[in-house]
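Appendix B, record 7
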Amino acid sequence: MSNTPNKVVVPIDFGEQSFIALEQAAHLAKMIQGELTLVYVMETGGFLSRFISKSDDDEMRKEINAKLDEAIAKIEKDQGVKCDKVIAHGAVYEKVAEVADMLSAKFVVMGTSGSTAGRKRFIGSNALRIVRESKVPVITIKGKHHRDGCKNIVVPLDLTKETREKVTKAMEFAKMYGADIRIASVLFTTDEFIVNRLTRQLSQVKAYIEKHSLRCTAEIIKGIKGEESLGQIIVDYANKVEGDLLLIMTQQETDITDLFIGSAAQEIINKSDIPVLSIVPTPKKDLAEFHPY
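Structure tokens (predicted):
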């Protein structure tokens, strides 16, 4: 198994959504001249695990290996992307994060049902836990139909936080795909001071992006408290502009608060049929406005 800087890790459970994510991961791997690593986790510690003998475990591993080899052969033939595989025992979210860290992966790309209900392997709560645990950006894929490329990248921003990191990653994808960046801020107040600061920041971000010869739009979305949640407003906007990728930040174990995390991040990941790229914020002092230099 090669250890390259451009690995894309793909958790797989052989369900429809994980194969959709695998196809999207292959397109991304081609864009970054990377390789795929398929990860299947045999969960341990559950009630039934005590009744599984070593011979049964060996038989399951053989079956999983065969299915992984079949999936790899198809991707390598259809997409021309080199693949390898990992079978691990343990908790899904821990092992996926561990493999991504071990390989110094560029991305984790995984399918999700957008629901925490049920007991399917790589959906719902497992997807959210992988987003939280991973040290590398995670792209969650809920929708069934996606473009091979990327035309519109949606970047929700506000006044107080992760602007530079999120914008930098959006620009990276926009350059790869020749995509437009659509920045938007949700406003629940009419306070003139806040409106002016937000307008100024959006102008600064837009100018910075366009300075690098990229196309960008900027928009303030007015929300009404109590009528619609932040997460839903962002998802609705992304759908309206026909987004292909939606960028959010995750909190993890940092002192940063009030980001697109918690219930808002979960809502975006759970409800968006547009792929969601969750970026791990670097712990640092909060910046009130965007300063590109």
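Remarks on this record: Strands lie at 7-11, 35-42, 83-89, 107-111, 138-141, 152-156, 180-187, 216-222, 245-249, 276-279. The two ends are 39 Å apart (CA to CA).
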